[in-house]
Structure formats: C-alpha cells, structure tokens
Amino acid sequence: MIILSDVDIVSLLSIEETIDAAEAAMVAYEKNETIVPARMHINMGANTSLCMPAFEKEFFGTKLVSVFPGNRDKGLPVTNGAMLLNDANTGLPLALMNASKLTALRTGALGAISVKYLSPKMATNLGLIGCGVQGLHQAIFICAIHKISKVFYLHRSDHSAKQFISALKHYHPHQEIEACYSTKDLLSKANIVVAATTSPTPVLPDEPELLGGKHFIGIGSYKPSMQELPDSVFRLAGSLVIDSEFARHETGDIINPLKKGILKEENVFSMGKVILGERKVDPNETTVFKSAGMALFDLFVAQAIYKKALKEHKGNIAHL
C-alpha cells in the first residue's frame, strides 16, 4: 500500500484529468455500472461524521470524513478525513490519501462540469459566496475550463481575502479578482454564482429581478436543515440538476423546493442524464446545479491518482 500526501495528490493529476475522472463517474453512475451504498451520517450536535463507500469493477474505496464547522474559529480545517482505495478483485488495500484534498479537487471538478454543460459561453463573470477551501477550488477549476473575465468574491475579512487571492493567483496568475461588499453588488456583476458556505439559510436575497439569467452552483449545504439558495432561484429555473440521486434526500436546497411545490420531482435530475443527452437544459436561461457529494466521485478521482502514482513512482510505501 502507498500513502499519498497532499503534494502528491495535487501534482499527479491535472485539473482537466480530474474533471475527466469526475465526469466518468457521473456517466458510470447513470449507466448503473457501479455500487454506491447510502452514506452513513453521524450527527454530533453541529458536527458531522460521514462514512462513504463505493465500488466499481477494478477498485472500491471508503472515504471517512468529519465536518466540524467550529474549527474555522480555531484556525483549523472544517473538513478532514482519509480515503482508502482497495483492489476490487482481492480486497487488498492499495492506497491511503488525504480525503480533504481529494474532496476539494473532485468538488471543484463537479462545479466545472456544471459550467461546461449548464452555463452559456457568454457568462464570463464568476461570483463566489464563501472563499474557503471549497469556494477556492470552485474558482480554480472553473477558471481552468471556462473563460472567466473577472472573479468577484463576497468580502468577509482582509485576512481570508488575502489567502483566497494568493491561492487563486497561484493557479491563475493573471486572473482579475475583485471584492464585493454585499450580495446585491455581487449579483449585479456575476453571471455564474457559487454558494460554498455552511449557512443554514439562503445567502442570496430572494429577489427574482436580481437572480434571473444566471447559472447557480450550490456546494455548501449538506443537511436537510440547510438551504443556501433562495426559493426564487428554483422558481426561475424550473428544474434542478443534481450530482446524484442521493442528493435528492440529503440537503434542504433540494428537499425544500420539492416540499413547497416550487419544483416537481420529474424536474430534478442528475448531471449524468444531461451529459448523456437524456435530459435537456437551456443554458441561456436560469440554471441551477446542486452538489451534495457522492463517494463514487472520490473513487474515480482516487483511482486515477493511484494509477498515475504507480506510473510515476510517487508515494510512500506502507507495510501493513
């Protein structure tokens, strides 16, 4: 078994290769070529522990994740975890890697895939609400595959802004970045909008005149009690593209619009169906993509990383 560090993970796969792996997972899931058990949630007050297994022909993997929102005030990562990759034919452990970095990369890839299929080419201004690890990786991946003229972000503190700008400039040195000091200001400038927070209530004003004609990406909410996007976003879009069917029952951004009758069940469908051409979405209208995460994305990206590591002789060997 090999142990892969964050440095190994980042250096082994390009952004484009990571997106390809995540998109392959979406297609395999849609074609029923995989087994993905429901992930186990253990809630401990405001904190959450997740166990996420997934299986395909060559490999299976298990991701163990903890989400502790209070870590932000302690200067610690909110999300931590480990990914174990196994051989599907023998069950032998093959690789252990940092699940936080893996999660950030595959989630960035999912947002980029949504822009690829659901956002018009003329949408060139990206707006971020939440500039932590997930928001940053959304910007990194979207800017890599879509012409973004300017990245707008909702300013919260000078320290976090400096960290965000420095990290994004590392990947995209010439990218223009501008602070916004209200969500209304951000909405007036951005036509691709990412919500990457742990807020239990919508982070955007519920005002249709500010929301129409944009592509929205919901990343942060992961519980039924959490809804990042306002009802008018779903009302304007008329449909909602989700990363997997699991998401349908996991987050308030999907549960609440359905419960209120804003969306019909048949108008909530997976991105895999869009990729395969089974469902159509007009990218020139208001569009919404919601990701709640699925272990299969981690498995496909992890196995791509593992294969590259073997080829390039990366990682530390661990004798069990």
Share in β-strands:
15-25%
Which structural class should the secondary elements be placed in?
alpha/beta
Largest sheet geometry: 8 strands, parallel
Q: Could you give me the name of the CATH homologous superfamily of the largest domain?
A: NAD(P)-binding Rossmann-like Domain
CATH topology of the largest domain: Rossmann fold
Q: Can you tell me the residue ranges where pLDDT is under 50 for at least 5 consecutive residues?
A: none
Number of domains as seen in the coordinates: 2
Shape: globular
Our measurement of the CA-to-CA distance between the termini, rounded to an integer number of angstroms, reads: 8 Å
SS field, number of helical segments:
11
Helix content: 25-40%
Order of helices and strands: EHHEEEEEHEHEHEHEHEHEHEHEHE
Order of adjacent strands in the largest pleated sheet? 9-8-7-10-11-14-12-13
Q: Count the strands?
A: 15
Radius of gyration: 19 Å
The first-level CATH class name of the largest domain: Alpha Beta
Give the overall pLDDT as a whole number.
94
